[in-house]
Amino acid sequence: MATVAVTDATFDAEVKNSTVPVVVDFWAEWCGPCKQIGPALEELSAEYGDQVKIVKVDVDSNPNSAAAMGVRGIPALFIFKDGEVVSNRAGAAPKAALQSWINDAI
After folding, report:
1. How far apart (Å, rounded) are the C-alpha atoms in residues 43 and 77?
2. Whether 31 is catalytic
3. Given CA atoms 89, 9, 54, 4 in this order, what sign does their dihedral have?
4. For the CA atoms of the chain, what is the radius of gyration?
5. How far is Cα 24 from Cα 15, in angstroms, rounded to an integer?
6. Is residue 57 within 8 Å of residue 71, measured between CB atoms?
7. Fewest CB within 10 angstroms: 12, 20, 66, 103, which?
8. 58-70: buried (b, 16+ CB within 10 Å) or exposed (e) per residue?
9. CB-count exposure of residue 51 (10 Å: 0-12, 13-18, 19+)
10. Is the pLDDT of residue 47 over 70?
């Protein structure tokens, strides 16, 4: 399963109402660290398959979702389970660290 682009309009349906845990990546095209973790998130999305959904929210195009989550810097990552945030982290990290963080939260 590839990462899914989520907008302000689809955030609740894709994230808060999901039946599986969701990793939300708040990012922007101009953000170097965001581009750094992008490929790792794509790989993790494929590896987790239907167990975990990984979505990306472009903060420039979708400022309301980022503001609602209190995002002040990017990349900002949140894990939702049953509609609630169970973990969050900021900044780039290697794939192994991201995978460990996800595994600990789900």
Report:
1. 16
2. yes
3. negative
4. 12
5. 8
6. no
7. 103
8. bbeebeebbeebe
9. exposed
10. yes
pLDDT tens for each residue of 56-101: 999 999 999 999 999 999 999 999 999 999 999 999 999 999 999 9
Q: Find the catalytic residue in 15, 31, 59, 105.
A: 31
- DSSP letters spanning 36-90: HHHHHHHHHHHHHTTS-EEEEEETTT-HHHHHHTT--SSSEEEEEETTEEEEEEE
70 Cβ neighbours under 8 A, 6+ residues apart: none
User: Which amino acid makes up residue 90?
Assistant: A
The per-residue pLDDT for 2 is 84
Instruction: State whether residue 92 is helix, strand or coil.
Output: coil
Neighbours of 86 (CB within 10 A): 13
Selecting among 34, 69, 71, 76, the annotated active-site residue is 34
34 is catalytic: yes
